[in-house]
Amino acid sequence: MAGGSRRKGRILAFQALYFWESSKVPLEELLNFAWVEEEKLKKFDDSIMALSKILTSGTVENIKAIDSIIKDHLENWDISRVSRVDLAVLRISVYALIYQNEIPPSIVIDEAIGICREFCADDSFKFVNGVLDSIRKTLQRKALPAASDNSAAIAGLCP
Predict the structure, then answer these.
(1) Count of domains observed in the chain
(2) What's the CATH number where 51 sits?
(3) pLDDT 10s digits, 74-126
(4) Residue 85 · residue 119 · CB < 8 Å
(5) pLDDT tens digits for range 37-71
(6) CA pair distance 46, 12, nearest whole angstrom
(7) Domain range spanning residue 124?
(8) CA–CA separation, 14 vs 9, rounded Å?
(9) How far does the chain reach from its first CA to its final CA, in angstroms?
(10) Can you give the pTM of this predicted structure?
């Protein structure tokens, strides 16, 4: 899938999460994208729709865990004070950071910043970048001990 298609899929997922937060429609209804103008929907190919559905359903299905991670990385800020637009970007990005390991964290964060610059308030991208970078660092710290433990185990097998 080309980069432009991935971006369109992420934007559609971001919009779906914003709509879901506002309406709390059931996931199945959300994934029908009936809330999107029909002419606009016709412009999206199957790969864009598939990516958007994966991001949207994965985020909604794991929303408690995702929100918990976001809450843990908000400094002097309550999640209820985060704008719905920023929260939608954070949610799909945290889903990608945790559950889509094949996508480098730098790409996830860059995409989030790009979506923020296009759809969020002026300085929101700085806030979103800070939260996501903090989450990225936490995930890296948690992954490093496991990697070093594996290295030690492998090194112990060699003479």
Answers:
(1) 1
(2) 1.10.940.10
(3) 988 889 889 999 999 999 999 999 999 889 999 999 999 999 999 988 888 99
(4) yes
(5) 888 888 888 999 999 999 999 999 999 999 999 99
(6) 13
(7) 3-157
(8) 9
(9) 45
(10) 0.84
